[in-house]
Amino acid sequence: MVQEKIELAKQMLDALSITALLAVFFQWLPHATALLSFIWVCIRLYETKTVQRWLGRR
Question: What is the mean pLDDT of the chain?
């Protein structure tokens, strides 16, 4: 149950991050927001099982 809530929170942050990237792309928000969103997406990608397998960590 707790793990499901954590995953839901991550998915909501992913959606927010993508929305922020689109907003920056259309010049609605400052560039700092794009950088933070890009960092978040990179962290999320790094956490995936596929990337971890490529790195030999799982």
Answer: 84
